[in-house]
Amino acid sequence: MKNYFFAVTLLFVFSACKENKAEPETIISKAQAEDTLNVQEAKNKNYPENLTKVFDAHGGLDTWKAMKSLIFTMDKPDGKEVIMTNLNSREALLDNPESTIGFNGEQVWLLNKTEEAYKGYDPKYGYNLMFYFYAMPFILSDDGINYADAEPLVVEGVTYPGIQITYNAGVGETPEDRYVLYYNPTTYHMEWLGYTVSFVPGIDKKELHFRRYDNWQKVNGLLLPKTIVGYGYKDDKPTEAKQSTEFIDVKLSKNEIASSKFVKPEKAEFIN
Questions:
Q1: What pTM, to 2 d.p., does this model score?
Q2: Which CATH number fits domain 45-271: 2.50.20, 1.10.10, 3.40.50, 3.30.43?
Q3: pLDDT over 70 for what percent of the chain?
Q4: Cα atoms in the Cβ-side hemisphere of radius 13 Å centred on 182
């Protein structure tokens, strides 16, 4: 009888050890399953063939979907501006010497660091404005997007085929916006972006503005912009080069930024 109880006890301890050992493996497999799901969802979407080739030319949509956070810095006349974003939740923080704008996943907030009135972009749109431009072309894989062929863009004797992007109602703060991605017909690299602006008063909301993408840097296997050049525009065509924005200290990671980073500070105010 003693031997029986001893055997049962050993069996119980051995089973408990097996259960305890299995738990970390289950946690790891869940994280792996989440990444696999993101990649599989991207594969299941019916992207236009030419857009898929653009994604591939920039490192591949599967690689982008495996990433969880993006941080980059812009060196501006008034100091460095740092933008960090969690790619899945779109929690975001834009920080410069004069102000900080944050999005906690539900609400936008503003912290004005000066005694003067805030003079930047409307925080409701400004917190992710440069992130959106910077994450091209991969940001165009988001849900709620419609694709169509656009008239090619001819610049300096080169014809760039175009892909028009529109949004379903209720997608983002400005679903009426329209974008046109123009790509190099040989390399399939994105070279131009045409876009409408609907959140700035007093300008034509249907006319295309332009930015040029022709200088890239490789980060974690993906081609991301090193510089983006803003252009003048007329009749839905770019005219002369204007301001060039350089992006430095770029970090693209498979790890999320802690959500506490995006919580509103006590002195900040929520934006309605």
A1: 0.82
A2: 2.50.20
A3: 78
A4: 25
